[in-house]
């Protein structure tokens, strides 16, 4: 209805047209809705001609321009390679049901492998959360491509309940392709710890999906001199150390947590506190608005943005990266969702939209 009004009044468009090129028509239409533009049109056609109505139009235009800028930034994020947060650059592709692979090059780690984006191949550690194909489908290609490039065999972590099947899958691929496919497959259970480097460890945590699943927290590890020895001089500390006295405490700091697909129940498990205080929490927000209910999200083992907002009080992270958006949404929907969550948490909220494709685009 509003659009019709706009289309029938071409004489009013010259002010706006240069600022609203075709790709942003969506934003423009939203602007028209929000700014009650019908009234402005009536005003400018004699029903009222007060200066307050023209300043109303100007402020509406101002608002629309601001929205337009935000929209442009969101679009640019789709093409930008990753996001920089808390000293980490995080890359990857994540579209609910299609593919999810999140990469943290500084940790040489990839979380889930999706369809094996090329940058994932260069990560030595791969953490698989569950066996849905949008998360594990690219695994044989990941292992094969590393072999092709002569990279060392990677270490792939899986929930213990799928290890045997993954082994079988690779036996089939080896038989079919007559290629070696070398890698270390580690079944790492919740509560267990694996040392990736002497200053880096990983621990799985419980998530709640429709099939067995787990998330991962990567911790930095450093030694800190015990309080009772801080007043000592270098030589004295050295002497104590040589005598076999333990002079340091080990400090573990949760750096990055990745949930994979999960219901919001993971927020309420006290054992998951480290995931919720990791510097960066990477989690899913498959559903974003009123058109899909929270019940629907729960039935499908996923999270609704509204649930994250509801549980926001438990998040202690400095940054939250949302992933796994349903392809029913577009970039503007995602941008609005981020703004909504941002009002609920002090953490910086970002969407991983690199390579995101809406089913409507
Ligand atoms: Zn998924
Ligand atoms: Zn899944």
Automatic annotation (TrEMBL):
Residues 122-325 form the Metallo-beta-lactamase domain. InterPro entries: Metallo-B-lactamas (IPR001279), RibonucZ/Hydroxyglut_hydro (IPR036866). Coiled coil: none annotated. This is Metallo-beta-lactamase domain-containing protein. It comes from Cinchona calisaya. The lineage of its organism: Eukaryota, Viridiplantae, Streptophyta, Embryophyta, Tracheophyta.
């Amino acid at each position: 209805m509003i659009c019709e009004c706009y289309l029938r009044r071409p004489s009013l468009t010259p002010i706006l047209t240069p600022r609203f090129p075709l790709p942003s028509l969506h934003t423009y239409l939203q602007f028209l809705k929000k700014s009650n533009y019908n009234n402005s049109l009536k005003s400018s056609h004699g029903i009222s001609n007060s200066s307050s109505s023209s300043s109303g139009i100007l402020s509406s235009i101002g608002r629309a321009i601001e929205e337009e800028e935000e929209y442009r930034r969101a679009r640019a994020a789709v093409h930008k390679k990753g996001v920089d947060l808390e000293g980490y650059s995080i890359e990857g592709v994540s579209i609910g049901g299609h593919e999810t692979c999140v990469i943290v090059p500084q940790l040489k780690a990839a979380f889930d492998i999706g369809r094996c984006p090329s940058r994932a191949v260069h990560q030595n550690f791969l953490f698989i959360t569950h066996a849905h194909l949008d998360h594990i489908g690219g695994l044989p290609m990941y292992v094969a491509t590393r072999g092709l490039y002569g990279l060392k065999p990677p270490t792939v972590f899986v929930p213990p309940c799928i290890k045997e099947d993954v082994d079988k899958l690779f036996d089939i691929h080896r038989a079919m392709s007559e290629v070696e496919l070398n890698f270390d497959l580690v079944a790492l259970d919740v509560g267990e710890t694996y040392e990736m480097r002497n200053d880096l460890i990983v621990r799985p945590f419980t998530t709640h999906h429709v099939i067995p699943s787990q998330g991962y927290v990567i911790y930095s590890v450093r030694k800190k001199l015990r309080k009772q020895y801080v007043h000592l001089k270098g030589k004295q500390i050295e002497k104590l150390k040589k005598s076999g006295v333990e002079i340091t405490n080990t400090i573990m700091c949760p750096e990055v947590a990745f949930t994979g697909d999960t219901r919001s129940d993971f927020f309420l498990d006290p054992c998951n506190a480290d995931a919720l205080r990791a510097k960066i929490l990477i989690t899913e927000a498959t559903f974003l608005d009123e058109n899909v209910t929270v019940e629907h999200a729960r039935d499908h083992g996923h999270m609704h943005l509204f649930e994250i907002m509801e549980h926001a009080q438990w998040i202690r992270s400095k940054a939250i990266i949302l992933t796994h958006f349903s392809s029913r949404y577009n970039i503007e929907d995602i941008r609005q969702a981020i703004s909504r969550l941002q009002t609920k948490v002090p953490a910086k909220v970002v969407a991983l939209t690199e390579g995101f494709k809406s089913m409507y685009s």
